[in-house]
Each structure stands twice: as structure tokens, then as C-alpha cells.
Amino acid sequence: MKMVLRWFPYGDDSVTLNQIKQVPLVSGVATCLPKVPVGETWTLSEVEKLRKTVNAEGLEMEVIESVNVHEDIKKGLDTRDQYIQNYIETIKNLSKAGVRCLCYNLMPVMDWIRSDLSYENADKSQVMIYRHSEVLKMNPSKINDEMKSKSDGYSLPGWEPERIEAMSADIKYYSELSKQQYWDNMKYFLDSVLPYAKECDIKMAIHPDDPPWPLFSLPKMIANADGIRKLISLNENEYNGITLCTGSLGANPENNMLEIAKEFAGKNRIFFAHIRNIKKLNDHDFDECAHPSECGELDVFEIVKALADNGFDGYIRPDHGRMIWGEKARPGYGLYDRAMGATYLLGLWEAVKKQNS
What we know:
Blueprint lengths: L1 E5 L10 H5 L4 E6 L12 H12 L4 E6 L5 H5 L4 H17 L4 E4 L11 E5 L5 E5 L1 H5 L3 H10 L11 H5 L1 H9 L3 H22 L2 E4 L18 H10 L5 E6 H4 L7 H10 L3 E6 L2 E3 L5 E3 L11 H10 L5 E4 L17 H21 L1
Parallel strand pairs: 1-2, 1-12, 2-3, 3-4, 4-7, 7-8, 8-9, 9-12
Antiparallel strand pairs: 5-6, 6-11, 10-11
């Protein structure tokens, strides 16, 4: 297992690589090239430039999060083949730079959404929260304004300008697309890229839907164990797996995170884990919170134990953290709470491994 932290280049991150390097036992970063428009190839020169920046601080760049999938691929349009070819070329270039895991998603239109990015707790810490009724009242323009207004000036992955411009039309398009058609489009993509992922030794780790329930008539495919099983059945190439995001899947009370971790770690289909805790207020509303089990609804120790006991040997990162001690950063991605989260998760991993030895 390797512990990493997410980091954004181009000066678009309040957290520096040197600060990340000082977090005990963090081996590297999960990073990206957000300035490359969705659908275009990540050139080898740009990838190598990023790798050298990361390596210069003594950190590894073995995880990329993420190379976004163009909407034409998800829609199954005739133009998808060129975008898929660009994706394949990107995989090849990432492999040459030593990347071994690619976290991506096939969520239509928007990667994730919250009703508030800086909700203030009683202790004055700030967290991201989700209130289903409030989100349903938002139109695409209002959603974008709300997300951007509380981002503290940082970019928000999944909320790129080109996506926002087409959001209303895209939502209408997907509302008329059957789930079977969407699965077919996903299969077409997987069948095209997985042979090259295997050849390049890059694990394809799909991120689950966030939140994991229907929203704006958009298809939610990777939202539970059945969806993960279906995804794997589309193409059983051993490089086809998931990013286990406990906060995304765990938001649905019907998802048993312990059983999901056991099943898919046991099948060697979990390549990356985003581990965080949440406070569930009801079936659809939740607050993000600190990582320890006692701070939320998820038994983080048991989840980590399930991964370790079932052969998980991939990458873990602490997921969204609180904003604490007056820190100003991209929502969910400050230094302090994530550093504590990484240390907590590493402590759990050490304890489980020593119990088993």
C-alpha cells in the first residue's frame, strides 16, 4: 500500500509539494493536467514536465486523477472514436512517465455536487455538505454560481467552463438516453482502452457516482455493488477496476461499505481508495467530517481492515478534509485535516498489519 495526497499543479493549490513531502510516509501525489481541454491528448512533454516537478521534491507520480472522459464518448456519438484515440495516446504517455494508476469517472455532465462548500460547524471548522432538496432547486447556472462562489478562487475539478456552457443541453440529452444505452457506451470505451492500459501497465480505477442516487434525470451507474459488478462484467480485463470512495458510496445508507470493500478487494478490483467519513442526516442529506470512525457514520477501522485482510495493495489517499485552524484552500483540499487523515489511516494500516503478523 502507498499513501498519496491529491495535488493540483500550475499554482492552483494552496498546498505545496514540500509540505506534502513532510507528512510522514506519504510517498507521492495523485495529480493532473487541468489546463488540457477535455478530450485532447496529454502530450509526453507536458506529462514529463509534471513528473519532474513532483520528483524534484522527492515524491512519486504514480497516480493520475484524472483524465476526464469527453461527453461524446459517454453519449456514444460518432465523434467518440477520435476522443478515444486521444485517450489511448494519453495512457501511453502516462506510462512512459511511470504512472501506474489512473482514476477516472464516467459520470455524465457533472462529477460531483454539494449544496454548500463551506458550512461552518459549531467548532468553527468548515466542511462541504449535501442537502438534496436544495440541490434539486438549482438550475445549471445557479449550481455553477454556487460552486464557484465558495471555491476561494481555486478551480473545481469537474466544473470546467466548457462543461458548464453545455450543461442544460447535456442534461436534456441524457434524460432521453436509456440505462442500457449508457452501459453500451461505457463498454465501448472500456473495450477500446483496456487493452492499451494492460499493455502500458496502468490500472483503470473508475470513481463511483457522487452522490450515488438519481439527480436531474442523469444516469447513475456506479452507485452500489451491483453497478460495480456490472462494470467489471462489461470487460473482465484485470486492469478494469475501481476507486473505492467511501464518502461517495457511503452516502447511501443501503451501501454496506464493509462488504463492498471485502468483495472487490478480494477480487483484486480496488486499485485506489479515497477514504473519508461522513455524517448521514437521512437517506439523502449528509455532512462531510473528520476521518476517524467516531466522527461520522462509517467504521473506518473496519474498512481499512477489510482492505488489508483481502489483499489490497494499491494506493490510498485521505479524501476531503475539513478547513481548520483558519486555513484558506480549495474546499476539501486543505493541508492540515488531510495530513491528520493520512496519519490516522497509516496508523490503522500499521495496526491491522501487526495484528495479522
